Amino acid sequence: MSAALLTAKDLSRTYGSRRGLFGVITKVRAVNRVSFSIAAGETLGIVGESGSGKSTMGRMALGLEPPDEGEVRFIGQPIPASGTPAWRTQRARMQMIYQDPLGALDRRLPVTAQVQEPLDIHQLGDSANRPQRAQEMLARVGLSVEQMGRYPHELSGGQRQRVVLARALMTRPDFLVCDEPVSALDVSIQAQVVNLLVELQAEFGLAMLFISHDLRVVRQVSNRVAVMYLGDFVEEGDADDLFAEPLHPYTRALVSAAPVTQRMPGHQRLVLKGEPPNPANRPGGCSFHPRCPFAVERCRAETPALVSVDQGSGRRVACHLIEPSASTLRKAA
Amino acid sequence: MPLLVRIALLWLVGMVLVAIFAPLISPFVYTAPNLRNRLVPPGTLPHILGTDELGRDVLSRLLISIRISLLIAFGASIISAVLGTTLGFLAAYFRGLVEQIVLMLADFQASMPFLILALSVLAFFGNSLALLIGLMGLFGWERYARISRGLAISASAQGYASACRQLGASPVRVYLRHILPNIASTLIVSMTLVFPEVILLESGLSFLGLGVQPPMTSLGNMVGYGREYITRAPWIMLSPALTIVFTTLAVSVLGDWLRDKLDPTLR
After folding, report:
1. Which residues of A touch B178 (CB under 8 A)?
2. Quick one: fold of A4-93+173-258+267-278?
């Protein structure tokens, strides 16, 4: 991999949650020793169900939340502690897109003022020029001139997300975390916003961490994809390879559940049994084993490591049933 | 705008104008006694509202009283709003020990009858208008502190505050430019609730003889001294008493209307 913009090494984050007033504090391990790296201009997609630790990972990647273990490095330097002046200065280089654009905007300020705000905060450019630069960026993301003076609640969901995108791009950042950026939007709007995101990524040379549970969107946006289950990466690889030939049983279940227009003959829907996982009560061994249709004795006892199965494409899988060689890929079936 | 709110607004504007121009429009010097014209009933020219036990013009005294009482009420309301909101924001930002201390102070303030606190302070430190305003400024701050702390905590958990933080904004910017305008409607409404109470408290203290000291006068002061003549010359205390009632009522009506108006979910 070429020079990485952002590297995360062995990130872990544990929350304590208490049941009832005098209940025992149970530890919830939201993210469990996850490592990844993102090169400049590259998109890493993260998929996984609710509670799999996707958002926590995004927040740790931005330094919004300190990892309990491990470290995030941005251009070789560790990210400063959240809230410090150094961290605030660094915000100009790394930004975030939120799931709920209405919540992410201040409803008492017109959108142009809010898009201009990053320039005011970081004292970029001439203060007289800032409103104009904000309007140029809003025009770039597709807002009309009369929409620029409006308040967030007077815009539609898609327009609001465009405003959030414009605000994030004002300081020309290198790295963008998108936390479920389109899941609150209508399907017809989703495509527009995703296309805009892809265009802007190419134009600004952005690296992205794209978090979503929507496989179609992730596939469209990402160069590489990582699948999370209960805070672990279970599989990581090139987006096209991973969706074309998922290896981990969980990934296979996810991919087979995605709606397609035409099923290939012989396509088998892999339906998972059991309940969705509870992060507070992690199963021993492979955390996926209670729901895995292929689980063997070894899966209950031993936690599989995320190992490379194919050096060329950088494919990594955490499953006992997958041997690290291409010839045995189908063995589990 | 409903008719009642219009009347309330008109009344308050009138009160503020009176307070500003009191020395110019009062027909007599409010301290000038005229022992030949003692206890003249209202309607007798040139004393429209009559005179008191020393022959001082009640209307002139009323105008000056409104000035002093409004000064105390506005000054105190602003001091307590600023103090309470600042402490609430500090509690919301630092959490932990700072929050515990602020909440403890707020609980202490809420559990202590304010009149007793005011009495002891005035008894020890004597009396001056500035001290009285400052003391009244301690009244009601715990409400602003609790409200602003709660709202600021929930606002920072919401998207817009954390989004601003992620943009690199300093806490001062996040709190003053984003959170404060968003919660201002609630604070303004609670200000309109505290304002009448400050007027009443000042009246109560003056009535007890610990508020504004003669020859200076205030609404409560007039009621307090007029009490002795309530059977023979009820007009001495009736006009300031009615002024207190109407002003507090007007502020409450306006506050009620503002709460509905400023709440975006009711619009």
Report:
1. 106, 109
2. Rossmann fold (3.40.50)
